[in-house]
Amino acid sequence: MDELLEKTEPKTLLFGLGSIVVLSAAILVVYFLWPQFQKYQEYTRSQEILVQAAPGNSGLAMQLEQARDEVAGLSRRLHGDMAGLPGKQMESFIIGRLQKISWDNEVRLVSVRPGVGERIQNFQERVFDIRLHAGYSGFYRWLNSIGTDLGFVVVKNYHISPLRREATPTELDIRLTIASYHLVKE
Asked: Could you write out the DSSP letters of every residue in 136-179?
């Protein structure tokens, strides 16, 4: 080996050693330093995103509260105030609410007869045969009020006739069947 070193020119020897050093440095950079540098950049980006999101955390609780209020409002729109009531309590609640709605709208609630309708998929139908005496405008307000106070109800059947032919303004004898639908928990 000493013989080979003596025959080799110093320029060639320096070039070979320099090439080995440069190649070693390139391998070090490519396999060890560059992946670490990429991880560092990724962590820096993640930290920037988290720092930007941190001030918004206080708004997150407010957004959750708004979402809960919206769900409660939609549930009230669908079920009225009777969500979660058992069957008999629901009947008495609806009858009481119909009486209150009738008083508020100057409608005379003559009779209410509750009944159980058919089951439609996961929903149980509760029907109420109702008889009212009212004027046109009172009955109109009454219909709007039951939709607001009782949630989603359907008028399945109705018959309207004048109570007395000679009465002025005309009072109506109204017979209708409304249905309310409630989710059956199995």
From this structure: HHHHHHHHHHHHHHH-SEEEEEEEEEES-TT-SSPPEEEEEEEE
